[in-house]
Amino acid sequence: MGSQSQIQRRNSSKIIRKGVSGKKKRSGGSQNGRSKEKPESSQKTTAVDEPTNVERKTQRKQIVKFVKSVLEKGPQGLRSEFASMKRGNDFEKMKAFKSAQENGKNRYKDVGCLDNNRVKLQNWSHDYIHANYVATPTNPKRFICTQAPLEKTCADFWFMCMQEQVEHIFMLCNLLEKGAKKCFEYFPSKDKGTLEFEDKDQKITVKFESSNEMKFEKSSKAKVIETVFLVEGPGGMSQKTTHYHWVDWPDRGVPAADMAILELLAKARVSKAPIVVHCSAGIGRTGSVVMIEYIMDQLLSGQQIEESDKILVKIREQRNNSIQTDQQYLFVHQILMNYFLEKKLFDKEIKEAHLQFTVQYLKCVQ
């Protein structure tokens, strides 16, 4: 079996080099065709939208390398890679988290919040919130990864959003999942109109403005509710933010690997402010989104795409224990492979290799 596996990897490498890089001569024409179909609202939505010739060559090199690595490892190899990266808590690096435990500010005792890059509340009754800045290669504060708000932390959450001028919030969980409370109802519905939260003598008001189910450009099974809120706080603070509630992303699992998450990221990417992302603990589903954008950021900026395990280590150094399951780790890779397929970057042979990968992937996640 060992020699057969080596032969398969060599064949895969040959297919990748031929399949992806072999389309270079045709890319100019097909690129022009794609740009005509791109909606005006799509800004920097993909790695291959209207690049220069130099950028196109650099991007293709990175894509070839990434695809080669993913297909050579295969789903089983990626699962083994993930299993080798053990998770744990070093509470010496989480002293603020430990102190906040007595005040009921943490949702889970075993989901720590690192001190080194935690978000600190300013001009508030305290500075602690279970949230960390997480960087991508070109943006040191691209994300704020946080736990789902508790009843005691709703005011903290919305104050943080005003402080950081947050324009986009991704909610990847539901209030109740499998009979367990996963998140407090921290935002108003259309019927309620307004919710108020208090911390000591300071008040936060969240006003409902509009809501609709998001319609994706590409076919998607995802159900995402897009709602606009106006948040008002002490001292005349205010912030308008768009809240994306992904209703059907299963806890510790993955949704269909279609283009929905990439479309969401494209909508939020135009903002210079941090994107707030939370599930229940703020590490599993949340970490999956962060890793996808980390790789997309490297690709969009023409940087070398690092090895997946190294990327995850860097993310975990900022948000402890990000990505909880091997299914989520596989999902990140499947999404990006499907993205490259969607962009017509694979020829017949590479499509076949991708199809084999997908068949194995579905067996792992179902």
TrEMBL record:
InterPro entries: Oocyte-zygote_transition_reg, Prot-tyrosine_phosphatase-like, PTP_cat, Tyr_Pase_AS, Tyr_Pase_cat, Tyr_Pase_dom. Residues 259-330 form the Tyrosine specific protein phosphatases domain. Residues 1-10 have a biased composition (Polar residues). PROSITE patterns: TYR_PHOSPHATASE_1 (PS00383), TYR_PHOSPHATASE_2 (PS50056), TYR_PHOSPHATASE_PTP (PS50055). Residues 78-339 form the Tyrosine-protein phosphatase domain. Residues 1-57 are annotated as: Disordered. Residues 11-27 have a biased composition (Basic residues). SUPFAM superfamilies: (Phosphotyrosine protein) phosphatases II (SSF52799). One of its GO terms (molecular function) is protein tyrosine phosphatase activity. Transmembrane segments: none annotated. PANTHER family: PROTEIN-TYROSINE PHOSPHATASE, TYROSINE-PROTEIN PHOSPHATASE-RELATED. This is Protein-tyrosine phosphatase. It comes from Caenorhabditis tropicalis.
